Amino acid sequence: YLNDNHFSILPVEVCNLLNLEILISSYNIIEIIPKEINQLINLKELYLNGNKISIIPIELCNLKKLEYLML
């Protein structure tokens, strides 16, 4: 869980966790989702609600196993 940490950007290092299935980074102040998010090929659930995201990167479309997205 990376929620409620006042992150302004999702740490790129998280994108190196190739076996990650659930990523919860809600209620921060994230404005940018890094393009490297497409490396999370096993990601099934992504929670980014309660942030300040204004642009959704096209790379999210490459997450073929993604079943649940909360923005």
Explain briefly what this protein structure is:
It contains no helices and three strands. The protein is an all-beta fold and 71 residues long.
3D architecture notes:
By secondary structure, the chain is mainly β. 0% of the residues lie in helices and 13% in strands. The protein is built from no helices and three strands. It has a three-stranded parallel beta sheet with strand order 1-2-3, with no helix packed on it. The mean pLDDT is 93.
The main pleated sheet reads as: 3 strands, parallel
Shape: globular
Helix content: under 10%
Low-confidence stretches: none
| Strand order within the widest beta sheet | 1-2-3
- The number of distinct helices, counting runs of at least 4 residues, comes to 0
Mean pLDDT: 93
Q: Which radius of gyration do the C-alpha atoms yield?
A: 11 Å
N-C termini distance? 16 Å
Based on secondary structure, the structural category is mainly beta
In total, the number of strands is: 3
Write the element-wise H/E pattern from the N-terminal end onward. Answer: EEE
Strand content: 5-15%
How are the SSEs ordered, and which strands pair?
Layout: E1 22-24, E2 45-47, E3 68-70
Question: Can you give keywords for this protein?
Answer:
3-stranded parallel beta sheet; mainly beta; 0% helix; globular; 71 residues; 3 strands
